Amino acid sequence: MATTTRTARTSPWRSASPIPVRAAADAQSERTTTTPRIPLALPSPSVPDGKFRPSAYAGEVVPFRTTSFREGHDRIGVHVRLFSPSGDESLHRLHPLNDGFDRWETAIAPLEEGVWRFRFEAFADDFATWEHAADVKIAAGVDVPVMREMGAQLFDRAAVDKSRPAAERRQLQNAAKTLRDPGASEEAVLEVVHDPALAAFFAARPLASLQTVGPDLELLVERERAGVGAWYEFFPRSEGARLLKDGTIKSGTFRSAVRRLPGVAAMGFDVLYLPPIHPIGRLNRKGRNNTLDPQPGDPGSPWAIGAEEGGHDTVHPDLGTLADFRAFVRAARAEGLEVALDFALQAAPDHPWVTAHPEWFTTLPDGSIAYAENPPKKYQDIYPINFDNDPDGIRNEALRVIRHWIAQGVKIFRVDNPHTKPLQFWEWLIATVSADHPDVVFLAEAFTRPAPLQGLALAGFQQSYTYFTWRNTKLELEEFLTGLARDTADYLRPNLFVNTPDILTEYLQFGGRPAYKIRAALAATGAPTYGVYAGYELFENVARPGSEENIDNEKYEYKLRDWADAEARGDSLAPYLTRLNEIRRQHPALGQLRNLSVHWSDDDAILVFSKRIPGELSPTGRSDTILVVANVDPHSVRQTMVHLDTRVWGVEPGEPFEVEDLVTGEQWTWSDHNFVKLDAFTEPVHILHVKESS
User: Fold this and answer.
1) Distance between CA 276 and CA 236 in Å, rounded?
2) What are 324-381's pLDDT values in tens digits?
3) CB atoms within 10 A of CB 73
4) Which among 325, 338, 267, 277 has a CA at the least distance from the CA of 302?
5) What is the C-alpha separation between 114 and 112, in angstroms, rounded?
6) Closest CA to 131 of 203, 82, 54, 217
7) Among positive and negative, which fits the CA dihedral 507, 513, 515, 520?
8) What share of the chain is helix, strand, coil (3-state, %, to 5)?
9) Rounded distance, CA 273 to CA 236, Å?
10) Rounded-to-integer distance, Cα 272 and Cα 532, Å
11) Has 445 been annotated as catalytic?
């Protein structure tokens, strides 16, 4: 583990390269031009255009990168200076990536929530320049006396630095003495040049000149749940719903739904997401399977919010009271679950807003109000909001509603279709809420084009749905997962839901039970946050003809499920989901977003990737490496060779290492080239723990 300058208990960060803090240069090298003496460019973390802060979550390993170089062959060094929200200052040495692009990097895991400040500092590294020149010239017998005296003078300069430990200063003095000793052999002199202890002294406290100090930058660090968690979605009206003798169904309530909480918690989920819990409109109510002729007893879509009983600040009377909801939140918390609530900024035709504020909607030339459409889908039971007639009124009401539910104990909101509302509105709302409640998390249901999806993340959404449900082939997944880990990780945190009430992809419809295993394993390991909508564990895969939705969709009716019976019959994916969540909790590498590396296979259906966290950055203090090998074809048995860049976890190519399959418990000795056979009908995915030698 890397040394630190403070105890792990009090440090607001974990770092691979901390060095003792010292003041930045009082004066930089002469600046009469835009370009400094040693250029610094392309700082990261950063966001496009620089209009917003980059963000991270507490404990996330963040790569701090910049580009820096100088003329000629003289060497430079680069630091990043960090200031925590509470004012702790730390200094961290960057290492060159040696990628041909003069990029420098170090990895730091901020632990304290709030706004961090950081800046990069570049300097001429006098020791590194001498060390390189001396190594080449002394061995070649060129300018040997000059190189020896130059080195001795560097050690003299360093030895008078009173901030260095006394033992270090003595060692520097002895090195200078050796270099000046005319009787010292070439071997003895080269030992000084190559001495790793001396190099470590100068790495921690470099002799710096020609310093450049970059601008102050900011990084917003939010709570861990903003970036890590396993989500489960259920409709409380279905949990505890009962079929009556007359064939009608009595709605479940918050009190009956409490009985499902231990089952959700036992599967290892962290967040329980509820669709809207408000009164449902009666005008234009949808019937079963989205029909326009509801029958008596049809409950309607929860997203058609508002009726004579109330609107967005009201609980549907069939579910209980506001006090019942608060009790449900407390019961969930006791099970280790945090409740997330849907925030759908829209209204049923009989929502109180429609009468009180008709200006909040779009009136058509015939006098009717426009209902929502997402061609070819039509939502006659929902009126979208018009944000331009009374923007202040809508802002104030939305803020009031959010604050109301925060007061009931809700700190996570899943926002329905945010891309159909002005981006400016979301930036204002999230910033206003965060000013008083920085622990509130907003998830964007942003199934939309890349620009608005990313724009919502930049505007403040802590999480976003993604295109994961439609990325199914090896090539698609390689590009998708790499993009999440590399291209947008400074501001966009994905939540990889495997299904939703609106989305039952063809892959799940026709892939059978193997498809459900494959998608769950990829979601659980591919990103720190993923989600499952209830019924997934029962392999509900029959779609309404011509759609990507389940037939008998729960959006429009009650669902009576017997979870225990399915599990007793071995007809449930719940044990597999439980194991996935156990693996996630036991392996901190899976709690990171930016650490994914794609490897290779000879089969176009075998996806291979790894995730690693080094010990000095891990909450356990131990390195952790997970290797995922997945057969993404749910219809076949595949056997092929996989090819690994084992240097990712510190093993040289060709060297053996041990792996354990965390699903089956099997163990093998692997190297950088390995044969695999993955049967989609038994275990289609290896989730391998790489056992690193101590």
Assistant:
1) 10
2) 999 999 999 999 999 999 999 999 999 999 999 999 999 999 999 999 988 877 899 9
3) 9
4) 277
5) 7
6) 203
7) positive
8) 30, 25, 45
9) 10
10) 10
11) yes
CA atoms within 13 A on the CB side of 439: 9
Is 647 exposed, middle or buried, given 0-12, 13-18 or 19+ CB atoms closer than 10 A?
exposed
Q: Residues 338, 445, 490, 683: which is the catalytic one?
A: 445
**Active site (annotated) includes residue 366:** no
Q: What is the largest CA-CA distance in the chain?
A: 107
Two tokens, residue 349: 């035709």
Per the residue annotation, which of 222, 350, 397, 416 is the catalytic one?
A: 416
- Is residue 527 within 8 Å of 589, Cβ to Cβ? no
Q: Amino acid identity, residue 531?
A: G
What is this structure's pTM? 0.95
Which among 515, 528, 375, 513 is positioned nearest to 466, based on CA atoms?
A: 528
Helix axes 574-586, 506-526, angle to 10 degrees: 20
Candidates 158, 213, 215, 214; CA nearest to 27 is 213
Q: How many CB atoms lie within 10 A of CB 635?
A: 13
- Please give the C-alpha separations between residue 151 and each of 129, 142, 155, 177, 561, in angstroms, as whole numbers: 10, 15, 6, 10, 78
pLDDT tens for 569-580 read: 999 999 999 999
